[in-house]
Amino acid sequence: MIVYQLRQYQSEACAATWDYLCRGAGNPAIVLPTGAGKSLVIAELSRAAVQDYGGRVIVLAHRAELLKQNAEKIASLLPFGVTCGIFSAGLRKYAMDDDVVCCGIQSVYKRAADFGRRHLVLIDEAHLVPDDNEGMYKKFLGELGELNPRLKVVGLTATPYRTSTGTICGPEKMFTGIAYSAKIPALIADGFLCPVTTEPTKDLYDTSKLHVRGGEFVAHEVESLFDDDGKTREACQEIAAKCRDRKSILIFSSGVQHAEHIERVLSGITGEQVGVVTGATLPVVRAAHLEAFKQQRLRWLVNVEVLSTGYDAPCIDAIAVLRATQSPGLFAQICGRGFRLHPNKQNCLIIDYGNNIKRHGPIDCDTYGVKEKKPREEIERPEGGGPGKKQCPACESWVPSATKVCEGDEERGISCGWIFANIDAQADTQSQILVAPKKWRVLGVHMNRHRKKSAVEGTPDTLRVTYTVEPCDAPIDETEHEYRCPRCFVTGKHTTIRGEWGPHKAKVICESCSCFIRWQSSGGNMAHEISEWICLEHPPGFASAKAFEWVEKRCVVSISDSMSDSPIDDAISLFQRGAFAETYSITTMREGRFDKVIDCDLGPRPESWQQPPEPIGYDEWGEPIYDEPLPDGDGLEDAPF
Fold first, then answer.
1. Which helix (H) or strand (E) holds 454?
2. Fewer beta carbons under 10 A from the terminal one: N or C of the chain?
3. All residues at 6 or more sequence positions from 421 whose CB lies less than 8 Å from its CB, including other chains
């Protein structure tokens, strides 16, 4: 069995997802471009859920190819004794009791109770989940949720938006936010994805007259336009010429008859075998064609909306698109078939006859799928336009602003059918900066050990760091503020003083019994708390490396070579003995109902601190005995599920 190693961004995606779940922020989505290895992220999340948190997992997909890919990757990462099975009528496999089960949604949506109590559901190709939370996914997840009300759902997709309804994430949707998003340009620059290139083609097809229904071009009009004898022959001749040095060419057609037409013409031009895969292709023939193409025994493969998602063939070095689509998500999935790395290719050629690149933008650009909007004063409105009206993007007719479905323009003899979405249908390329960062003054810091609820033995704890903060723009005053001591019940007054506890905070101490009451902000406001979790005791990997880096950035002593078997206890002990730099401020980003710490302003690391005491002896197990016990953490807390 092949043992897979996670790439850096895959580890980051997993760490960010667990962070999202542990904060109770909802059900997140992970955005990874096609070819970036969603299957490995699914495998690592499954492993961690079972091995680290004692959970049971279901992985949902809609195609047999995806189920087999996911099951293979998951099995390679699971430890001995942890099992992974497949439940799919199409594959004739019906596992239900394994720790991780990869399921075809069509096969299981009526059988949720048969899988027992589950803790985590991972959905591959999450953009296919209906936006109205109806259908097979709603039924299956609803019944699983009855067995475990703390069930968590994580979606993975390359395209977190739909043409008709916009982003797949939102407060009322199945996925509440994006936990992690990797960008195509960055992954190409880092060598994780194959570069894509394109060449100009003959202007054979005029797509401007196609009508739109339900957010997509009318299917029979697209096939009628593209399945033309003369144009198909011209396109095939040009494709054959441009792909002379290409070894694996995948072609997307507009329909079944068009695919068969391309197969006849292209095989006649090249003298080579051309495979065709459609929804009606027999499973045995389909599997044979896909395997032959993947092993590069078949050079040409034509498909009709079959291989736009979930097909893993790294050898693809050319993609010809003989169809038009209004969906940036679908076109991204089509082009994504060529993103995977292969030793025999330097780039992937995209040959686009449907004006899709012109319509959506370059696939490897950050602004892909985002329609540029002119300022209101720059918009030139033709006759019929004006206040209270909007223009249909399909037929360019001007209609009242409240119109839901465009009926076209009777005077021009145009019938349309475009459905106006409630949300702008544009790529979610700015999901990470929809909310502006916020800076907080830190009034106090507390550290304690954080343990997951229902954690099995061996599950790693985390170091919880809680900041007591006030907004940096809070007013600063020196007025008196009343307090009531919880111990002696004496009421007194306190004046905010800038002193040993930092420039904008003060410790409120009862003047009668010297009891610590609270941290008081400079403006007299009660403290607000923000927490982050540091994975010091996680297995070696990205999360633990970032955790040790976090500590060493602040502490005068390195805990890489831990003083004991517990780096968390060591960090707490060092913090309580003054070995950490003071945190002046933190910057956070709002994610759902919680604030995520993204930056901090630290003071200098202390020059002196309370050294650990020398042991006065050792017990029968060889453990040191101190005159006074070292400080330790407390406050064990809940898990994400």
1. none
2. N
3. 163, 164, 165, 166, 215
Given a cut of 90, is residue 482 above it in pLDDT? Answer: no
If pLDDT is split at 50, 70 and 90, which confidence band does 17 have?
Answer: very high
Q: What is the 3-state secondary structure (H, E, C) of 203-237?
A: CCCCHHHCCEECCEECHHHHHHHHCCHHHHHHHHH
The whole-angstrom separation of Cα 401 and Cα 471 is 41
Q: How many Å apart are CA 288 and CA 275, to the nearest integer?
A: 10
Ordered structural domains, the chain, with CATH? 8-182 (3.40.50.300), 196-360 (3.40.50.300), 438-474+525-625 (no CATH)
Q: What is the pLDDT of residues 66-96, one digit of tens each?
A: 888 888 888 888 887 788 999 988 888 888 9
Contact between 154 and 123 (Cβ < 8 Å): yes
The pTM of this model reads 0.56
pLDDT value of residue 302: 95
pLDDT tens digit sequence for 521-548: 444 444 578 889 898 888 887 778 888 8
Rounded to whole angstroms, the Cα distance separating 121 from 598 reads 28
Predicted confidence (pLDDT) at residue 493 exceeds the cutoff of 70 = no
Contacts for 538-546: CB closer than 8 Å, 24+ residues apart: 538/52, 538/460, 538/462, 539/460, 541/6, 541/11, 542/6, 542/8, 542/11, 542/12, 542/14, 542/15, 543/11, 543/14, 543/15, 543/18, 546/15
- Asked if 114 contacts 130 with a C-beta cutoff of 8 angstroms, the reply is no
Residue pair 193/339 in contact (Cβ under 8 Å)? The answer is yes
Neighbouring-strand partners of residue 498: none
Contact 279, 289 (CB under 8 A): no
Question: How crowded is residue 458: how many other Cβ atoms within 10 Å of its Cβ?
Answer: 8
Q: Residue 509 in 3-state DSSP? A: strand
Structure tokens at 595: 């604030």
Return the structure tokens found at 577: 């003995």
Of 246-250, 286-290, 463-467, 541-545, which has the strongest mean pLDDT? 246-250
* DSSP result, 138-187: HHHHHHHHHH-TT-EEEEEES--EETTTEESBSTTSSB-EEEEE--HHHH
Q: Please, which residues have CB within 8 angstroms of residue 605's CB and are 6 or more apart in sequence?
A: 554, 555, 556, 580, 581
| Cα R_g (the chain), whole angstroms | 30
The number of helices, as runs of H, and strands, as runs of E, in the chain is 14, 31
CB atoms within 10 A of CB 293: 24
Q: What is the DSSP letter of 338?
A: T
The Cα–Cα gap between 77 and 57 comes to 14
What letter represents residue 128's amino acid? L
